[in-house]
Hints:
Radius of gyration: 27 Å
Bound molecules: calcium ion
CATH class: Mainly Beta
Structural class: alpha+beta
Mean pLDDT: 88
Strand content: over 45%
Number of strands: 8
Low-confidence stretches: none
Amino acid sequence: MKLTKKKWTAAAALIAAGLASTANAVPMEWTDTVDFNPDRLVTALDSVVYTHTVEGFTPGVDTVDSYSLTFNLYDDKDSSIYEPEAALFSQPGALLDTLWFNLSGTETGGWTLAGAWQLENSGSLTVAITSLLGDFYLGGSTLTVHGEKNSVPEPGTLALFGAALVGFGLMRRRRESV
Length: 178
Ligand SMILES: [Ca+2]
Ligand SMILES: [Ca+2]
């Protein structure tokens, strides 16, 4: 039996496919919820700083494309006279990210490159909700992260492919010497 060029191409393709499968990137969505229990009353000029830690995310391995945050913010309705509220959302790279005047219950905040960088390198994101005006409640916060789950090639897998390459080399040499 002769090792034809066609067979060599097939063997090379097999090894290439094997190597590619060890460095897999799978699109992923992670979520984390911080629930304030009891809900946190935010009074004028008070800041609530808290951290979302994303379970299942491996810092330095998995990647972040974007993220979004939703907040449960509602008025304490402690006064019969109209008392305006102004809630401010701050995050890495944007101390004045979003400002809300009418708290509807569910509010959405944007994302920043600095925040994505922090998430990618630590697996967590520290944000703040501040009252610029009036009193209101912060009931909870949900972080949704979009990115890729990456698998690190295991040393054992790499060794196996190395051995396969050496094996193909030996086979070739033996065939050629016949
Ligand atoms: Ca109020
Ligand atoms: Ca709550």
